[in-house]
């Protein structure tokens, strides 16, 4: 099962790079073409992959940050088929931002919750959270009760099965400082909360994180305030049931230090798939060393056997599991 997941990952990655030839009879000139981007948000809700924010390669990098669109992933993927992106930019109220993070939440689990980020314009948005109703196709800025927190960026939101979002670390915008606390957001009642910081990892940004079957959250790698990539010879576990931290030493083929990576739970529920990132001094990692799996029972690293062409290593991307695919939105 894991091998199939990784095979689909490489195939689907190559597919998403194709970005439109002719789609359902629509000319490529008329079809919506998203700009390439990084430091964006990507979330799957009801068989739709929603993407917004991020920075592109245009002057100022703002064009990509204004776009909001989705890909219908309800039908099986075929690496020879074109992709049809649905443009929602006209409905977007979120200013161009980088370092945002998003999850699905709300009472019916069909609301896109967007948190944090730094504006790409001179006017900084004070809103910590934006919410997009995927049924009504409308954005709003929710009123959230509880203690207010300073806006932060470059962290990874993880949501549990009860709609609670866990936001660890990141970089505070007002003070330009790294933190290692845990804040929470109840997306059903829209209330802020505070998790435990006892025995938490050191302050970091752009780490990998994902929810495990036992409702623990695993945190992997990242970067510190000295612009150093952090090691993967240990990972950090946050127990959402008991609100406490623990550290696990890893073994096997331990990946090199990296940040700007992604981590998703494999389809077998026993492996975390880690992809991409940057090494120390912003060194781009070799493609052959970009993909690893971590057994969550033994905490042993390995390099999986895959088929297809390995793409060049990406960083500051997003990854989602879609059906039988591990799909990585790479820019």
From TrEMBL:
Pfam family, any one? Kelch_KLHDC2_KLHL20_DRC7
Give the range the annotation lists for the signal sequence.
1-21
Keywords noted in UniProt: Kelch repeat, Repeat, Signal
Could you name the domain of life of the organism this protein comes from? Answer: Eukaryota
Which named protein is this? Answer: Galactose oxidase
Please tell me whether the keyword Repeat is annotated for this protein. Answer: yes
């Amino acid at each position: 099962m894991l091998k199939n997941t990784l095979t689909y990952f490489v195939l689907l990655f190559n597919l998403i790079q194709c970005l439109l030839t002719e789609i359902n009879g629509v000319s490529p000139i008329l079809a919506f073409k998203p700009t390439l981007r990084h430091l964006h948000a990507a979330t799957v809700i009801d068989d739709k992959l929603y993407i917004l924010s991020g920075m592109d390669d245009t002057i100022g990098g703002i064009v990509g940050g204004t776009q909001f669109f989705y890909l219908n992933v309800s039908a099986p993927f075929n690496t020879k088929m074109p992709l049809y992106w649905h443009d929602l930019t006209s409905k977007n109220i979120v200013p161009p931002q980088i370092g945002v993070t998003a999850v699905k939440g709300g009472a019916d689990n069909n609301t896109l919750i967007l948190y944090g980020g730094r504006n790409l314009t001179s006017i900084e948005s004070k809103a910590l959270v934006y919410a997009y109703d995927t049924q009504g196709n409308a954005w709003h800025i929710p009123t959230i009760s509880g203690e207010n927190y300073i806006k932060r960026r470059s962290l990874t939101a993880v949501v549990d099965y009860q709609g609670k979002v866990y936001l660890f670390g990141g970089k505070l915008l007002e003070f330009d400082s790294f933190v290692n606390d845990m804040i929470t957001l109840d997306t059903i009642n829209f209330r802020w909360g505070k998790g435990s910081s006892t025995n938490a990892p050191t302050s970091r940004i752009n780490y990998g994180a994902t929810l495990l079957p036992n409702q623990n959250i695993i945190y992997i790698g990242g970067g510190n305030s000295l612009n150093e990539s952090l090691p993967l010879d240990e990972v950090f576990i946050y127990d959402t049931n008991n609100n406490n931290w623990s550290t696990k030493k890893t073994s096997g083929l331990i990946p090199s230090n990296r940040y700007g990576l992604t981590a998703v739970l494999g389809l077998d529920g026993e492996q975390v798939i880690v992809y991409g990132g940057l090494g120390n001094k912003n060194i781009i990692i070799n493609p052959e060393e970009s993909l690893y799996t971590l057994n969550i029972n033994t905490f042993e690293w390995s390099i999986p056997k895959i088929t297809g062409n390995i793409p060049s290593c990406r960083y500051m991307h997003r990854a989602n599991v879609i059906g039988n695919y591990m799909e990585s939105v790479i820019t």
